[in-house]
Design a protein that fits this description.
9-stranded mixed β-sheet; 8-stranded mixed β-sheet; mainly beta
């Protein structure tokens, strides 16, 4: 084909040089369809010509009928202005170019060149043939359905350029020819080819193709010959049945395609979902036997039937069974909780539905949160039966229904009710030491939870609100009775009561309180008169029972005197008031004060401790001078004074005392004694205004009248109205008179000095101090709470005195007083100092020697005991032991 195109080009270009005055020439050429092609037209230019006109024309039909395509003066005509043609604008070149030539461009073209102004013309005629591959005149693909034994003729006709077309037949890709044995026959003509297939059966059906070709190319047409077959669904190989079963989980999407085969393949389907057509359900028919459903539910379970036909033979049918599986759902479940008395029966229902059918089983949740599976399993129902409920069945139970898809559970709680029963018992009795902590714990197992009450001797302890030492602490585990400090009043019978609506239980015990001895002495300070019988009562409370001893308390008394009083002048009587109270009475005649018997000591002991009490024998003395005498209230004719009494002659009690006020008028010297109604205050009446009085007080008891207190000066002013100058002068005179009287009464006490150093006291009188002849200056020392005179009358104006009582271990107090025939006045303030250390050391040495001496005496007494042991064997004093000696 390329050699032919090259030859055509040589022919065309050999005639390119056209002389304008020559005659026309004819040239032939070819071109491939779809490619670019140029019809050449070249001319030589004449010197005489000014310009040239190029004209292109195409012959239509005959050689005389032409159509103008292009004129260089006017351009392309309207028919070709938008075509893919172009004409060269170079001088001497008027070639016509096709950008994409087609078979419609096949024809004869004329190029005419006219020179101006000569108007000489020359022509060149070119015949162009467009070549293309064959094209089928009939359909390129056909399908023929025949019955078995029919004869089918297939024709294949094509056109192309060049038109010498060759036909080739093939079946299923294999070239065939005329084969009478197979019933195949091919016939060829100049315009087509025919293939005859006789006696068609399944071996001759298939794809037949015809290939037509020329020098440019080829084309192919296919023809299908099929033997008609009725549509049949695909069967299961195992059971040779068009029945299918699918298991789908609820909530998923499901797709199904009913596959089958038939000729022709255009099949119509008919679907029934149960007894309804598919259009009335949620199912969707997509195409070619494909159906689907979204979010399938358990209600979509059932049978689906499909009928299909291709109008050949009888329709075929397929059955689809769909089983939708879903997790279990409870139909019956137990209550949230059960409260049931012990030993009754109980039914716990549990039933669930599901696909596949769920299996039921029960689980009990133990206290440690571990699970224990109960021996029960069923797919029908899961009712759990308790024929005889016990307290051990109390707890949480879980019914679980499960299948392959999921599970569901129901939880219930069983509370078995039963009467409280104590988890542990009390001891029969408890022995506790007084003031110790004691706790009783009471815990009972029962349901409903027990309520606790405590009793002591049949009385509810909660009602004993006055006893702050009790407290009750109740928790969910039990109740506790707490006694923070056990007292003997807590001794007794205790009961813990635990109760609920099913009954009550008791725990009982007895609490015994033991304590160390406690002594109550039935003895008060009494006036001791020698020779009068006295008794000392020692009452001892102790648990367990105590032993009791009486002892003499004055260690300085010789041993023989102690024995004399203990053996000859005393009598001991012991008796038990109750089980733990012992009363011991010591009877004796009151000794004389000179015998130095100061008292007795009662000692009681048991395993918990020792207690003792001293019974002092105090002899009555005169009352010490009152102190702190002050004016409490003053009027025109009376004054109220007050003071303090330290002690009643050695007794603490201030009873049986009479107080007196000694009053002396300053000017006249008149004096009298006023009886006071109170022992520490007194109203002194019948005083005259404008007079001054010196007042002191003293007290009297059975031992006699005591010494007077330090006197004070009291002025009774005259109530009158005076001028300010008179009032000032009178006030000045009054103050001066008052100061003179006080100085006279106290002998200028502030000019007397007194100092202490070690065991000595030093005094000195001022130059302005004068002591009257009827008065005496004395030194007083504070001993045992009252002032005691320790010197005779001091005549010198200065000096020192040795104080025997000075002791480094205590603070000493001293003062100087001025006494007359009737009263005494303090000259100095109270002086305090420490005693002599060296003297104290000497005293300690003496005490050590005394202790050694006492040890010798004790050894002697032990010897005496051994000597008289046989004599006193049957005469022991009740509650007394010689160990006290």
């Amino acid at each position: 084909m390329k050699e032919m195109l090259t030859l055509a080009s040589i022919v065309v270009y050999s005639a390119l040089a056209i002389h304008p005055t020559r005659c026309s020439a004819t040239v032939a050429m070819t071109a491939l369809e779809g490619g670019a092609a140029t019809i050449p037209c070249y001319y030589r230019q004449n010197e005489a010509a000014n310009s040239y006109v190029v004209l292109w024309q195409k012959f239509v039909g005959s050689s005389t009928n032409v159509k103008i395509i292009f004129n260089s003066l006017t351009g392309f005509t309207d028919e070709y202005i938008k075509s893919n043609l172009s004409v060269s604008d170079e001088k001497g070149n008027g070639s016509l170019t096709f950008e994409s030539i087609s078979r419609a461009d096949t024809g004869t073209y004329k190029c005419q060149i006219t020179s101006l102004p000569q108007f000489t013309q020359s022509n060149i005629i070119t015949k162009i043939t467009v070549l293309y591959a064959p094209e089928m005149l009939s359909l390129t693909s056909t399908k023929t359905l025949v019955d078995v034994g029919d004869t089918v003729t297939i024709r294949c006709a094509a056109k192309g350029s060049p038109d010498n077309i060759e036909y080739i037949w093939s079946k299923d890709g294999i070239r065939i020819g005329s084969d009478k044995a197979l019933g195949l026959k091919t016939v060829y003509s100049s315009i087509d080819s025919a293939l005859t297939v006789a006696n068609v059966d399944s071996t001759k059906q298939g794809n037949y193709s015809c290939i037509s070709s020329n020098a440019v190319g080829s084309t192919k047409s296919t023809h299908e010959i099929w033997v008609k077959r009725p549509f049949r669904f695909m069967r299961s190989i195992e059971i040779d049945s068009a029945s299918f079963k699918y298991v789908v989980v609820e909530g998923n999407d499901f797709n199904f395609t009913a596959n089958g085969f038939g000729i022709p393949p255009n099949v119509s389907y008919s679907w029934l979902i149960g007894n309804l057509s598919i259009e009335k359900t949620r199912w969707k028919h997509m195409a070619r036997g494909h159906i689907m459903i979204q979010n399938i539910t358990r209600n979509d379970s059932g049978i689906i039937r499909c009928s299909a036909t291709n109008n050949v033979g009888q329709p075929d049918a397929v059955t689809i069974e769909i089983a939708v599986q879903y997790p279990p759902r409870l139909l019956k479940h137990p209550q949230q909780n059960y409260s049931i008395p012990e030993h009754e029966s109980l039914f716990l229902p549990c039933e669930a539905e599901g696909q596949p059918p769920p299996v039921h089983h029960w689980i009990k949740v133990n206290r440690n949160r571990n699970h224990s599976r109960l021996s029960h399993s069923s797919t029908v129902g899961g009712t759990w039966i308790f024929p005889n409920v016990t307290r051990l069945d109390t707890g949480s139970y879980i019914c679980i229904a499960a299948n392959d898809i999921g599970s569901v559970q129901a939880i219930t709680e069983i509370f078995v009710e039963y009467q409280p029963q104590f988890t542990y018992a009390f001891n029969e009795e408890y022995v506790v030491l007084e003031d110790d902590y004691f706790q009783l714990n009471c815990s009972a197992d029962g349901f409903p939870r027990a309520k606790y009450r405590w009793f002591r001797s049949s009385k509810s302890i909660s009602s004993l609100t006055q006893d702050s030492l009790h407290s009750i602490r109740t928790t969910k585990h039990g109740s506790s009775l707490l006694i923070h400090r056990v007292k003997r009043r807590h001794e007794g019978f205790y009961r813990c009561q635990a109760s609920n609506k099913l009954g009550m239980s008791f725990l009982e015990t007895t609490l015994y309180v033991q304590y160390s001895p406690k002594i109550w002495k039935n003895f008060t300070d009494t006036i001791m008169l020698p020779g009068i019988p006295i008794a000392f009562h020692c009452v001892v409370h102790a648990n367990p029972k105590p032993t009791l001893e009486w002892a003499y308390v004055d260690d300085e008394t010789p041993a023989w005197k102690r024995l004399r009083y203990l053996l000859n002048k005393t009598k001991i009587v012991n008796e038990y008031v109750d089980e733990f109270t012992l009363k011991s009475t010591l009877k004796l005649m009151c000794p004389a004060k000179e015998e130095n018997v100061t008292g007795f000591k009662c000692t009681a002991a048991n395993i918990h401790g020792v207690a003792s009490e001293t019974f002092e024998m105090t002899f009555l003395e005169r009352i010490a001078p009152p102190s702190d005498l002050t004016v409490l209230k003053k009027s025109e004719d009376s004054v109220k004074i007050g003071w303090k009494l330290e002690a009643n002659g050695g007794f603490k009690s201030l009873q049986s005392i009479t107080a007196y006020a000694h009053v002396k008028e300053v000017k006249s010297g008149k004096q009298w004694v006023h009886n006071c109604r109170q022992i520490e205050s007194c109203n002194v009446r019948n005083l005259q205004s404008g007079h001054a009085y010196i007042v002191s007080v003293f007290a009297e008891n059975a031992a006699g009248a005591g010494r007077k207190s330090t006197p004070i000066l009291i002025e009774i002013l005259t109530p009158r109205t005076a001028s300010p100058a008179e009032m000032h002068e009178e006030s000045t005179q009054t103050e001066a008179t008052k100061m003179k009287e006080i100085q006279k009464a106290n002998a200028s006490r502030y000019d007397v000095t007194l100092t202490g150093d070690g065991s000595k006291l030093y005094w000195a009188l001022g130059s302005n101090v004068h002591i009257a002849q009827d008065r005496c200056m004395l030194l007083e020392l504070m001993t045992k709470g009252y002032w005691e005179r320790v010197s005779s009358c001091l005549k010198a104006r200065s000096g020192d005195i040795h104080v025997r009582e000075a002791n480094a271990d205590q603070q000493m107090k001293a003062r100087i007083v001025l006494c007359g025939s009737e009263d005494c006045f303090a000259l100095t303030d109270v002086v305090e100092w420490r005693g002599d250390v060296a003297r104290n050391q000497l005293r300690r040495t003496l005490v050590t020697a005394a202790i050694a001496f006492v040890c010798v005496i004790v050894a002697a007494l032990i010897a005496v005991r051994l000597h008289y042991n046989s004599r006193l064997k049957d005469k022991k004093l009740s509650g007394y032991h010689y160990n006290s000696l």
